[in-house]
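Notebook, student rotation project (T.W.).
Task set for the rotation: take a protein with a known small-molecule partner, predict the structure of the complex, and write up what can be learned from the model alone. Partner molecule chosen: zinc ion. Sequence and SMILES entered below by T.W., checked by me.
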Amino acid sequence: MIALFIACSDGQVAAALAALQEKEGEADADRFLVPGGPLVLTRPGMERRVALDFVRTQMDLHGIRTIYLVSHQDCSAYEHSLGGLGFDQQELLARDLRRVKALLENTFADVDVRCFVIPWRENGGLPSFGEAEPVE
Ligand SMILES: [Zn+2]
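Predicted structure of the complex:
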């Protein structure tokens, strides 16, 4: 069974995303990559409708029943959308992930939605994106 990963199109998180797919045994999963990833599904109106259409199409084509929502810290799409990320990013990302999870569960029957955040690590060697962490 193929899964679908909805994640940010930022190439800097590509390696962390691939590592998460590998770890979850989902290396062949479909991917829906847009700036901000799950962010697009928090938007009202047209943007969300179009995004949901893409998700529905991918689910229908491959019989997808598992969706991974993957956000990341220091996301420039988020910064652009909100005019800055000066407050608690982790809390903001987790809140949006829970909202999008609820939206998908209410829109599609029998879908299993899992949420992850890719952290930005400042300490210990070169700053870089770390291993994706689950969000409950
Ligand atoms: Zn991003």
